[in-house]
Structures are given as structure tokens and as C-alpha cells.
Predict the 3D structure of the following.
Amino acid sequence: MDNKIKVVMFDLDATLLPMDQDLFIETYFKLLAKKMSEHGYEPKTLIENVWKCTYSMIGNNGKETNEAVFWKNFAQIYGEDNLKDTPLFDEFYAKEFLKAKELLGFTPKAKEVVDLLKNKGYRTVLATNPVFPAVATRNRCRWAGLEPEDFELITTYENSSFSKPNPEYFVEIMNKLNVTPEECLMVGNDVLEDGAALKAGMRVFFITDCLINKNNDDISSYPHGDFDALINYINT
């Protein structure tokens, strides 16, 4: 790996944490709708509206945190009074959301590669798309066999003002860490979302175990492969 690199950023879902993302999202929304239906929310409509609020975070322009954008849009749909239900969502991510773990895979290579990098002196970042609150992201981190403390920074909707595939998401991380694009490597499985790091001037390594390549882009010129290939890349 290029000796200029100082920071390695990892995507979480379907990278460090093997999963069928469509099945995971479907189950996550079913669990959320079930809980909130007990508090007066119509399930189908709630799912549609949470998607709308999520897309608002993906389109965030950086003037507010993703958290602020989500709840501003939520209030526009349901009214300011319904912001009183925010603790119910927090409770969901701390409790019912944990049931989604049953759908996920696991690879010991995730911890192996993070430990390898830390032992070599690299700074590590969990650069998961920040559309979840910290409590949910920390849980998913543990599901991957890692601890939040394994990372210098974890992007969540509370501390981020952009989302993938906006290159400004990666610029925001670099500004927080005071590093240059040449000093950063992004490791992820989504060619569109994680590949946006290229537009920010970073290097990328595509994990192919659960590769998502919606536009069928040619990735042959970029480092790619399974975790063993990544470990070899790091050690060269």
C-alpha cells in the first residue's frame, strides 16, 4: 500500500458486516413500523415517510446535521407535535432493532484487517453512510465483531452533514481528521457510494464479497477483491 496513506476508512454494511442489504432494509422497516404502529402510525405510510426523510439526508447540503434534516422533514410531514415521539425511535434502535442481527452474516476477517491496520499505525474510520443514529451504528459495529473504540471516528447522523454518494461526505471526514486525500484509502462494497471517494481525491479498494455495482462500472483498474486480497494489498 502506498506509504503516503495514513487513514483507512471502512464502509460497514455489506463490507465489514456481510449482508443482503435489501433484506436487511426490508426487515428493519418492518420492525420499525411494528413498533410505531402501537403509537398511532400507519405502517405503510410511516415507511414511505421515513424513506422521504432518509432521502433528505442523502441530499443534505451541509448546512445542518443529517439528524436535524431528518427531523425537520419528519415534522413537516407529521407536525411539530409529533417530535415528542423522537424518544420512541431512539428506544427502537436500542431494543427492537437488535432483532435485525439474525439476518446478517459475519466474517472474522473484518476484525483481522482492522487490527492489522491499527498495529501498523494507521488511523481507522468507520465511514458508514450517516443515515442512522449513533446507537444503531455502534450496535452494527459490534455485530461485525468490532468495538466502536476500534475507530477514531464513526460517522452517524448526529455528527455528519453530508451522505454518500456526495464527495463532500469524504471531504468532511478529512477536514475533521486534518488529512489530505492522498493520505486516505476508502474500503467499501458499493461502487457508486464508496467510489465517490475517488471524486474527493482519495484511493479506493472495493470489497467484492457483497459488491453493489448498480451502473455496472468497470472497476478492473482499481484495487479490489476479498478480505485476503485487501490484507495482501495492505502488506505490500
Summary: Residues 8 and 124 are 5 Å apart (CA to CA).
